[in-house]
Amino acid sequence: MYKYMSGMKNLIHFARMSKKEFTLEQIYDVVKKVNLESSIHKKVKTYSLGMRQRLGIAQAILHNPSLLILDEPTNGLDPKGILELRSYLKSLKNEGKSIIISSHLLSEMQLICDRAAIIEEGKLVDVISLKDKKFSSQKEFDVSNSHDAARILRNNSYNVEIISKSKIRVSTMKEEIPIIIDILIRNNIKVYYIKESEVLLENHFLNLTKAEGQ
């Protein structure tokens, strides 16, 4: 962006570089979508980092692309700005647009993306679906013996991860919880409490890259 020009003049400049014709009304519509109406006529050099991020996104979506590529789009945004951006990106996705995001904020990516590609030292090491059950339907059980509990549940075809001596994580829906408790109790395993446990993308990334580095 040209810092000595206003945000609006920057957008007009980039609009003129496109093969498409633009009206001021269309540009203002994009400005409204990224919530920059109150500062769009100010010079970019007065913008905060978050405002520059919004202006960059406005420039990127100006010509209504079918594919949008963003590098750390939430950088510099406050929590409200991140929430607004997340909502807007989801609306673009619902319109049928493809969005590729490069980011180190994996927890935020888990909330936005359908799929994630993990890159370690320049190499693609995994591509996963964030709609997979292990990323959305996890229950954590505090039990008297995690290793015995895991063995018993695995014998009953459950996907189980041992967290500690007294904790296991089970991929299951809430409707299955009474069945799991019954199985454990019948096998003399005490269940102390159960809680929702989401396997975070960060954990998967760290476990995967640790394995790659060994």
Quick summary of this structure?
The protein has 214 residues and is an alpha+beta fold. Helices cover 42% and strands 21% of the residues.
Topology:
Elements: H1 7-16, H2 24-33, H3 49-61, E1 67-71, H4 79-94, E2 98-102, H5 106-112, E3 115-120, E4 123-129, E5 138-143, H6 146-155, E6 159-162, E7 167-171, H7 177-186, E8 191-196, H8 201-213
Parallel strand pairs: 1-2
Antiparallel strand pairs: 3-4, 5-7, 5-8, 6-7
How would you portray this structure in words?
The chain is α+β, with helices and mostly antiparallel strands and 214 residues long. The protein has two domains: 7-103, P-loop containing nucleotide triphosphate hydrolases (Rossmann fold, 3-Layer(aba) Sandwich); 137-197, Alpha-Beta Plaits, CATH 3.30.70.270. The protein has eight helices and eight strands. It has helices at 7-16, 24-33, 49-61, 79-94, 106-112, 146-155, 177-186, 201-213; strands spanning 67-71, 98-102, 115-120, 123-129, 138-143, 159-162, 167-171, 191-196. A hairpin with a 2-residue loop joins strand 3 and strand 4 (123-129). The longest helix is centred in the middle third of the chain and has 16 residues, at 79-94. It is elongated and about 70 Å long. The model has no long low-confidence stretch (mean pLDDT 85).
